[in-house]
Amino acid sequence: MSKTIHPIAGTIALITILSFWLSTAWSEIFAGEQAVTTVKTWVPYGFLVLLPALMAAGGSGFRLGRKMRGPVVHAKKERMPFIAANGILILIPCALYLSFKAQAGAFDMAFYVVQVIELLAGAANISLLTLNMRDGLRLSRRRTAHP
Question: How many other β-carbons are positioned within 10 Å of the β-carbon of residue 130?
Fold first, then answer.
């Protein structure tokens, strides 16, 4: 079961985070304050998809990795605490703050400083999750090549 859940949940989590990031960048660069407000208002609702996907990916990955050894598995395990801490300590608080500020129409310097922090932290998590996906694909290919 974990072999099925893990890649699906991981893909959903990565696509969700990527959609947050791209929507934010697009609205800031190409659209006006109304679009930014809409994006920033909806991102916290996306947590209803993201958090269960991350929990399922993390739990199933932990279960799959329990018996596995090697540098690829080790690298995936090393990335996870940073991904989790970045999300819990930086990305979620930033998203909630930016949602509140955008809904209040307060597009001040603090909003944009936090926006930059969120984009950088989001890019870091996208990169790390992409590396984990790449390594997971390598591991699954290795498993199917040597049953």
Answer: 12
